[in-house]
Amino acid sequence: MDITKLEALGLSPEMIRAIQDTGYEEFTPIQEKAIPVLLEGRDIIGQASTGTGKTAAFGIPAIEKVVDPEETADPQILVLCPTRELAIQIGDELRGLLTYYKGIRVAVLYGGAGIVGQAKQLEKKPQIVVATPGRLMDHYNRKNIRLDKIQTVVLDEADRMLDMGFFKDVTKIIEKVKNRKNLGLFSATISQEVMTV
Q: Could you give the 3-state DSSP secondary structure of residue 171?
């Protein structure tokens, strides 16, 4: 990928190296449109189907917005998604983008896995949390995680989250993120329910 294009976006040298490692020739349409908007700190609703590079579309600007890990021990970025498989996949992709960064950690929280092991991940003070809504609420109710320092919230596959009955949890979570600066909502279909969220 053309390094001058990446520099023009104002990306850090660490991020540019990580993107070059991925072997991207060009950004996909959703990346092309979403990355500059999220880097500016604006909200976005993106319609894109699975496999179009959404994780990089929100992951690149989210990582660039993480404040120095030494300055705050609370999560700054929250990515909500509907399934454990997607949570794991997003976590892996974000860790790949973090290859050249020092001290930025990712915790991945989902049902069907031990809550104690996930609580240990949270004790390590991750800056980025990827979670399914139900499991995030479990950790919140157990006081394992604070949501008041989160700056960026991303809802990935919002339509599927609503189809799976997560509407109430998602709404509750968004209400608890008092200091949110921007919201990214990505969905294969944009229904009235998605717009309500």
A: helix
Q: What is the pTM of this model?
A: 0.95
Q: How far apart are the first and last CA of the chain?
A: 35
**What b/e string do you get for 64-103 counting C-beta neighbours within 10 Å, with b at 16 or more?**
bbbeebeeeeebbbbbbbbbbebbeebbebbeebbeebee
Contact call for residues 100 and 19 (beta carbons, < 8 A): no
Q: How many CA atoms lie within 13 A of 17 on its CB side?
A: 7
pLDDT in tens, 13-48: 999 999 999 888 899 999 999 999 999 999 999 998
Closest residue by Cα to residue 59 from 157, 173, 152, 171:
152
